[in-house]
């Protein structure tokens, strides 16, 4: 691995792994959940509030930072860690996913993508070299090769073409990488096609990366189809490198993915749902705008020890959300991230204790795993 | 004063007073600045973030809480302290000011005000008895009599009529008050007319209140006219009771008002300006959306020790504000409140040290007193 990095698996239970990923900015306990700080801020949370949720590593989006304030400006301001006042591990994506999902595309070919900014229409170009140069400027501990991520369902021709291009771009990403203090991950594409995934992985391992990510999942396919692919395939990723499932998912998804042998996850759900007043709790999802919470002096989740649950009532949260006070979005986001981090902590403990399978069964039948509203 | 309350002046320097106001929820050092938590939340700040600014007492608006979630609901949830998770001193206003400024008025007579909610048009009625009952339900430590506050300039007939009605309502407010653990303040009206102010005060003192407030200022008159009235009149308020100047003001206003002998202040400026990216600093007002802050790695205010100034750069704040990240509004509001609290602390120290007049002159000629942008 790159300088200052190490990955040790400290316990295993079935395919699930408990590990520690060391980076120049500190250690990450795996399985690890990474909240999304799109524009170098996890929406509504100060760095201190974020640290208090138990978060060890945060993801930021290169596409958004390329547009504003520009990666050169972030570099001038001391790099991403200093910029967002997060002196702990960070990961940036390549920018490719947002180019394909947000920008107005002009042309995609093997060289790269021409697109227009979704903010002001400025014409821009993303190539593997540009994606790596931007991430070298940002300076996150973990960075990603540029890939092409097709929405599912996709025809086998489109999937095959995306894998071919992803491999071309992976090789160029690797060649363009200039900083020894950043670990570079390769991304496996191939949709739900196991043979295609295997082929993609094999070529990536030949190139050699510090970590391996699964891309192109949770992009339209049924949840069970994704779980099936994970259980069939994830354990084939190199055992001595961190395995990262990109952009996934619900609490249940994370448990299934950890069971399949994955180590790192990111998802906007805790914060996006938090802003809407949807809370993940041990009793199921709570929709806090619902009038039935109006006079409740109970905490949001009686099983949770986060700042929000220690401090305010459901009735107060309902009031803040109903009146549009942004503090409501912040407090529910704090809880949701803490809920995810507590879930990861429980998984790590269950793996260490050698009881992950029974823990997983118990979790799957608990209200916490459901997305339906609690009955209380 | 009411049960569990005391007010001691511990030092005096000219007309300026340093004191301690004791309440059932703790002490308040005066001169004191009270941030505004309109709907039981200081916009964007958690209770922990608010406490970290050095804030000892917060104001909440009865009108807003009457409409949503209703004062009975707040009472059911344990009262305002428990509701907003602020177990320190609180003050509520009577609701009158917002009824006159926000609601659609139907009829005002000596009995009270008929109005329609600015949210959904619900017809409602505010009388002195209703304003006190609502505040008794909320349970703040300090509560206010209902008054009528005319905008300035106002004809002498309108001012005289407002004073007459304010006195009728003051007497009924006093009679309606039911809780011994809340201190009730009377409000002096009378615009810039010194004789009218004196007449109003004299009648209020005959009735007897726990504290006295100056209302009807900073409502359209020139700043110097308000300062003149304060210097001519404020020291006539009873010396053994806290003196509260409602809804004022800029840093310079607060210094002039403290010099005139006032003890308590509230204003939305630190948070309202904070949300716009306008910061009060020792170097003058900074407009953080300005592109010249884009690449600045300097703190917002080099003389400030608040969380924001300790943690992030001006360039990062500019980025958050330019991209609409609500964290920017929160971080600048934290700084602005801390700036106000540090100003109060400096005033208290200067009064204690017997050097308030020279401190005030130095402040008045410093960039911190100005509202013009710094040149840096």
Would you write up a description of this structure?
The structure is a homodimer of 376-residue chains. In chain A, helix 13 (314-322) crosses helix 14. The mean pLDDT of chain A is 96. Helices cover 41% and strands 19% of the residues of chain A. In chain A, 56% of the residues are buried. In chain A, the strands form 5 sheets. Chain A has a 6-stranded parallel sheet. In chain A, strand 10 (142-144), helix 7 (156-176) and strand 11 form a beta-alpha-beta unit. The first copy, chain A, is globular, with a radius of gyration of 20 Å. Chain A has 376 residues and is of the alpha/beta class. The A-B interface holds A 39-41, 43-49, 64, 68-69, 73, 76-78, 82-85, 294-295, 297, 307, 311-313, 315-316, 318-320, 322-323, 325-327, 329-331 and B 39-41, 43-49, 64, 68-69, 73, 76-78, 82-85, 294-295, 297, 307, 311-313, 315-316, 318-320, 322-323, 325-327, 329-331.
The main β sheet of chain A shows up as:
6 strands, parallel
Radius of gyration of chain A: 20 Å
Order of strands in the sheet with the most strands of chain A?
4-14-13-12-11-10
Structural class of chain A: alpha/beta
Coarse morphology of chain A: globular
The oligomerization state is homodimer
Question: Considering DSSP H and I runs of 4 or more, what fraction of the residues of chain A is helical?
Answer: 40-55%
pLDDT averaged residue by residue of chain A = 96
Largest contact between chains: A-B, 41 and 41 residues
Instruction: Tell me how many strands of chain A there are.
Output: 16
Percentage of residues in DSSP E strands of chain A: 15-25%
Low-confidence stretches of chain A: none
Give me the number of helical elements of chain A: 15
Terminal-residue CA separation of chain A:
50 Å
């Amino acid at each position: 691995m790159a300088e200052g990095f190490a990955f040790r698996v400290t316990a295993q239970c079935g395919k699930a792994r408990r590990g520690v990923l060391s980076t120049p900015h500190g250690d990450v306990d795996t399985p690890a959940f990474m909240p999304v700080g799109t524009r170098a801020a996890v929406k509504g949370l100060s760095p201190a509030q974020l640290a208090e949720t138990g978060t060890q590593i945060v993801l930021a989006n290169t596409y958004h930072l390329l547009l504003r304030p520009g990666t050169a400006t972030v570099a001038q301001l001391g790099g991403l860690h200093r910029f967002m006042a997060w002196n702990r591990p960070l990961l940036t994506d390549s920018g490719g996913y947002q180019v394909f999902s947000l920008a107005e595309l002009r042309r995609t070919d093997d060289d790269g993508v021409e697109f227009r900014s979704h903010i002001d229409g400025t014409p821009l170009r993303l190539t593997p070299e540009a994606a790596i140069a931007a991430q070298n400027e940002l300076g996150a501990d973990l960075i990603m090769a540029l890939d092409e991520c097709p929405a599912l369902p996709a025809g086998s021709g489109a999937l095959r073409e995306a894998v071919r291009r992803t491999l071309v771009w992976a090789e160029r990403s690797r060649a363009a990488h200039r900083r020894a203090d950043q670990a570079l991950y390769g991304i496996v594409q191939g949709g739900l096609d196991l043979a295609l995934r295997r082929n993609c992985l094999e070529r990536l391992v030949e190139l050699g990366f510090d970590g391996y990510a699964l891309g192109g999942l949770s992009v339209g396919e049924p949840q069970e189809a994704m779980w099936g692919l994970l259980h069939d395939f994830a354990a084939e990723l190199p055992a001595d490198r961190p395995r990262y499932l990109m952009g996934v998912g619900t609490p249940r998804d994370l448990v299934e993915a950890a069971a399949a042998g994955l180590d790192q996850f990111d998802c906007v759900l805790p914060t996006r749902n938090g802003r809407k007043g949807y809370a993940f709790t041990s009793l199921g999802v709570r929709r806090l705008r619902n009038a039935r919470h109006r006079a409740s002096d109970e905490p949001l989740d009686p099983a949770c020890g986060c700042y929000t649950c220690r401090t305010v009532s459901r009735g107060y949260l309902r009031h803040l959300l109903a009146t549009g006070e942004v503090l409501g979005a912040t407090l529910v986001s704090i809880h949701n991230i803490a809920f995810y981090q507590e879930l990861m902590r429980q998984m790590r403990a269950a793996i260490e204790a050698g009881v992950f399978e029974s823990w997983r069964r118990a979790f799957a039948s608990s209200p916490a795993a459901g997305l339906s509203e609690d009955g209380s």
